[in-house]
Amino acid sequence: xxxxxxxxxxxxxxxxxxxxxxxxxxxxxxxxxxxxxxxxxxxxxxxxxxxxxxxxxxxxxxxxxxxxxxxxxxxxxxxxxxxxxxxxxxxxxxxxxxxxxxxxxxxxxxxxxxxxxxxxxxxxxxxxxxxxxxxxxxxxxxxxxxxxxxxxxxxxxxxxxxxxxxxxxxxxxxxxxxxxxxxxxxxxxxxxxxxxxxxx
Length: 200
Hints:
Layout: E1 2-7, H1 13-24, E2 30-37, H2 43-50, E3 55-57, H3 66-80, E4 84-87, H4 96-101, E5 106-110, H5 125-134, E6 138-145, E7 155-162, H6 169-193
Parallel strand pairs: 1-2, 1-4, 2-3, 4-5
Antiparallel strand pairs: 5-6, 6-7
Helix pairs in contact: 1-6, 5-6
């Protein structure tokens, strides 16, 4: 049984896709052991509680130094017993001590086809604003392993999504979530849980 901890900062739509995937059997051999948010007001925490999942807030604002927060985040993950850490819209730079402690056991979902529109400053709506400003015909989402860089780890899965005339960043964001993110993130977790992708 693969034990996963999900880290999320906001509404938690990707978290909900994982919760639903586990419940429906789309994700097999998997248990969500903890949800961690850096935002005490994140709706994702309510989603976790509604599903009976241990949910905690570890916010950098409650620590005097970033180092203390980094250690608390690592401790929060270690205490959960998670085998895999899933970043599902977690707007925190993952500290090196966490990356070292979970080498090749952290995956992230990014709302573009990496290497396009990724790296420092590209998150949330900013990704879709940049894609539309560039005039791309195809965008999408990527699941990748996390390393010390920003969106630089090995790519595991990608799914393309077409842009359409009249798209706003908000419309495109929703389409990328519905057509790509909510599909490939559960798919990837299931692949890891069933030995189709090697981690560690």
